[in-house]
Amino acid sequence: MPEPGAFGPPAREILSVSDFTRRVKTALEGAFASLWLTGEVSNLRRAPSGHVYLTLKDAEAQVRAVIWGSTARYLKRLPADGDQVLCRGRVTVYEPRGEYQVVVDYLEPAGVGDLYRQFEAVKAQLQAEGLFDPARKRPLPALVRRLAVVTSPTGAAVRDILQVLRRRAPGMAVLMVPAPVQGRDAPRRLIEALAAAVDHGDCEAVVVARGGGSLEDLAAFNDEGLARAIAACPLPVVAGVGHETDLTIADLVADARAPTPSAAAELLSSPWVEGRARAEEHYGRLVNAMRAGLATRRLTAEAAGARLLDPAERLRRLIQRVDDLRLTLGALTARRLTAAQHAAGTAAARLAGASPAARIPLLSERTEALAARAGRAARGRLETARADLALLSGRLEGLSPMGVLARGYAVARRDGRVVTDAARVRAGDRVDVRLHRGELHTRVEGTSP
Q: Could you give the strand order of the β-sheet that contains 430-434, starting from the edge strand earlier in sequence?
């Protein structure tokens, strides 16, 4: 007989609500693992857990979205209802309510989308040129003794770096090279600071750092010119820009990338910590070896003491020997007494010749001679020191900037900055000229190379 249903309609597949929801969840999450959305924020609320719930909408539709607390705490500013935003996320299904939602892992004002496209364009170009290739990057020194830090002198990044280095590598010298880390002029100033760190000549590595922020805040570190300056830098460069979730072009082109400024300091100070740990280990081993040696010698001393005779027994043996010798000493007593009297007379004569009263005048003369020599030596050294001081004072005067101005040179400034190239000045510019005495306030009529 044919099996049931062989010639009839196919058997129905009956799903539970949970099975259906899981299938929808799997299909949606597979199809929209990553997507970009733009829309208006509404119904934004922050839960006590730190998660942020909101709705993204446009004129015709809306979708629920959530920003987990681990992501929300890195946002520079939460959006407000009515803000237009650009966000990146993935689609998931909240099974208890059978609703789909977007889990946002990046969010910025909608106008920043152009910055992200520029970021991707510069990234693709530099990657094609091989600037991100690990084989091109320089290894970090085994032990950095002098470090240059290029960052804003007023930001939290420099405080974090110095705090970590004081704790982990107090012997490391730090050269602070100030530069703005945000704004239109920041890329050029950062490039100049990087060149200044190299020109200093004593540094062994450079840290380029700043705190976290939005893509717009980090735009200076996505500049193509800065990226090429980092790649061409003869010193190893460590980038510590933003938070762990931030990624910039400077991070990709640097010789080493740290997720935060503090992590950059920890990376460079690790050899100091490891060296201190090895020293402490060797010290502990040395102490243990010394203790073991002392214990061994203590046991040897105790064993030797056990072999010694009892003092009372030794005394009895000595008394017996004295008794044996007393019989032979009687005959020699008179002769030894005579010899002793003769020796006493001789010693008395020698003692009189070595009396302190006879040696005091000689010692007094010698003391006076030594005091005179010491006085002459002190005066000679004082004169030499005065001559050296006069020579050094003359050299210092020769190196003084005011001494250079006194010889007829001058310093020109435009807008408070020293002018070293005529090409930077145009006709009609106001230039202040600093002389040895006073200043000239001039206006440029023309320039020549």
A: 417-418, 411-414, 430-434, 439-443
Q: Which of 144, 102, 440 is nearest to 266 (CA)?
A: 144
- pLDDT tens digits, residue range 219-260? 889 999 999 999 999 999 999 998 877 788 999 999 999 989
Write the CB contacts of 208 (distance below 8 Å, at least 6 apart in sequence). 150, 151, 190, 194, 221, 230, 237, 238, 239, 240, 241, 250, 254
Structural domains of the chain in order of their starting residue, each with its CATH number: 17-113 (2.40.50.140), 129-135+144-273 (3.40.50.280), 406-443 (no CATH)
Instruction: Name the nearest CA neighbour of 119 among 107, 127, 110, 109.
Output: 127
What is the DSSP secondary structure assignment for residue 112, as one 8-state letter? G
- Number of Cα atoms under 13 Å in the Cβ half of residue 401: 5
Contact 48, 186 (CB under 8 A): no
pLDDT digits (tens, 9 = 90+) for 146-185: 999 999 998 888 999 999 989 988 888 999 999 999 888 9
Q: Chain centroid to CA 279: how far? A: 20
Q: Is the pLDDT of residue 368 over 50?
A: yes
- Strands 205-210 and 62-67, by their bridges, are unpaired
**What are the phi and psi torsion angles at 58 (to 5°)?**
-130, -160
Locus of tokens 């570190």: 221
Per-residue burial over 27-48, b = 16 or more CB atoms within 10 Å of its CB, e = otherwise: eeeeeeeeeebebbbeebeeee
- Judge contact between 233 and 198, C-beta under 8 A: yes
Element (H, E) at 240: strand 237-241
Q: Buried b vs exposed e over 238-262: b needs ≥16 C-beta within 10 Å?
A: bbbbbeeebbbbbbbbbbbbbbbbb
How many other C-beta atoms can be found within 10 angstroms of the C-beta atom of residue 181? Answer: 23
d(C-alpha 342, C-alpha 337), whole Å: 9
Amino acid sitting at position 164: V
